[in-house]
Amino acid sequence: MKFAILVSEGPYTHQATDTAFQFAQAVLAKGHEIFRVFFYHDGVYNATRLTTPPQDDRNIVKRWTELAKANNLDMVVCVAAAQRRGIVDDGEMQRNGKDATNLAEPFRISGLGQLIEAGIQADRLVVFGD
Amino acid sequence: MTTKQFMIVNRKAPYGTIYGWEALEVVLIAAAFEQDVSMAFLDDGVYQIKKGHQTKGIEIKAFEKTFRALEDYDVTKIYVDQESLTERGLTADDLTIPVEVLSRAEIGKRMEEQDIVLAF
User: Which of B10, B1, B88 is nearest to B48 (CA)?
Assistant: First the structure.
C-alpha cells in the first residue's frame, strides 16, 4: 500500500513525531511504500539540523534524516509554516535576506499543495498530531 | 486531476493556537487543487466561525473574513456539530457563514464517507 504521512507537531514536546517516525519505520519494514512525509504547524521543527538533544536522548531530526536517506523518502516542509518558525534553506535565505540556513538534508521546503498531492496520490494519508 | 473528498476538522478555538488559521490555509489550497472539500467544526472549533471576532487587543490578525470568502472557492459544505453549539449557548444565527448543523452521529457518517480527514 502507498502511504503518506502528515506530522503536525514539533519534536520532544509532543509524542506525535515519535509515533509518526515509528509508524514510518513499520510501514517500510512491512514492504509498503511511503509517497511523502509532510511537516506542518510546529512539525516543521523536525527539520532543523541545529537540534542538539542530550546525548542519552534520541535525536529526532537525525533519525528522520537517516530513515529518509536509507529509503529515499520525500520529506517536505510547508513553506508558510517554515517561514513563520524560522526554518530556512538556501533559497529562502536569499529570498528573505536572512544570514543563515538550518534545514537538514534531505528535507526540502515546498508548498501546501504537496500535502494535497500526497492525499491524492497515496492510498492512505495518516495524520500525526494532537 | 483525480478528485478526492477532503474533510478538514476544526476542534480548537480560533486564537490561542495557530491551528485554525493553518487549517484554513489547507482548505484554500485543497480547493485550488479542485478537490471536493468540506469542513467540520466541533468542540471549541465552533468559535472559529462565530460572528464578531475582535482581535485588536491580542494583536493577532482576525481571520473571520476568510471564512466568508470560502464560497468563492466553492467550499460550501460546512458542517457544525449541534451538541458543541448547544454546550456553548450558540445557534446557527451566531455564525458568520451559512452552515449545516448536524448531530454528532451525522457528522460521524460524513467523516466515514471521506477519502481524507485532516483534523486540526
Answer: B10
